[in-house]
Hints:
With 321 residues, this protein is α/β, with parallel strands linked by helices.
Amino acid sequence: MWDILPGTLYHWYRNHLSDYEPDRKSGEWPQNTVITVEENTGEILEEKPVYVFKPDNIGERMSIDDKSIGHEGYTIMSNTDTGKIAMLIESTRTEELEKAMRLFDKDLLKIRSISLDMSPTYLKLCHEQMPYAQKVVDKFHVMQYVYDAVLDVRSRIKKELGEKLSKGKEKTEQDKAILYEIELLKHCRYRLTQSPNKWSEAGKKLMDSVFENHKDLKTAYQISQDFKKWYDRSNCQLNKTEIRENLYKWYYSIKNAEIKEFISVVKMIRKHEYEILNFFSWGHTNAKAEQLNGKIQRFISANYGIRDKDFSLYRMAGYFS
């Protein structure tokens, strides 16, 4: 057995040991196809297979996310509680996703809450196809926006320090002090996205030194931590009015701080405020969907990519749905 060439083993597995060829020839794989038709002529422009279509995997809490497989973009809708895929299609286009969603018909009525990122495509899709389900913008995507603003403050300070360096080749004492400050700012990047209780003793000393010299960065970091506390799952027990009032207090603290990097963050949160506040009704996030994406990526890596795309997706459908 150990003398069998990998290519030979793959051939037997694909064409004889698995059910791939029988399912493909009988039309059971893929189960459904989304067709794009030219309205005027009726000509079929494109056919997109729905590689996974499992109405049985629809539950009360679902997640929808995009995933790059190979060089193409896919949309995956999965059950948050079981982690199983209900739909997998090679598309992120609204029109094609709407057609795929309609295949579920009344099964979509089972969904009480769906977690998604702030993609206009997915927001529009979920509003139209799941009108009775609560749309919950994923907490981790929102927090990433807030942390990015803190890191933008850090980048601005580094740039301002760099502009103070003398133009000559020889470094003055002031230049050395500036370069030292820039080096400290480089080392504090990841700590700015962590809670203080996760810092080591050396990390605390580093951050104390940075915050002492750069008050804007300290304020920006405190703003991010205040938002993180507001966004904590333990606050789900509070009533919606109190949660909203605390959010408005956070908006006001940003206005007083006058840190320009947070202006776009506030606009983004205000725009999606309703879907963000829905988190406190369900405590629902895209964490399971991100875990599923990681498992799919490990599957692809273990199989050295997806050169035989259709068979690889057939296997994924079997493993993850």
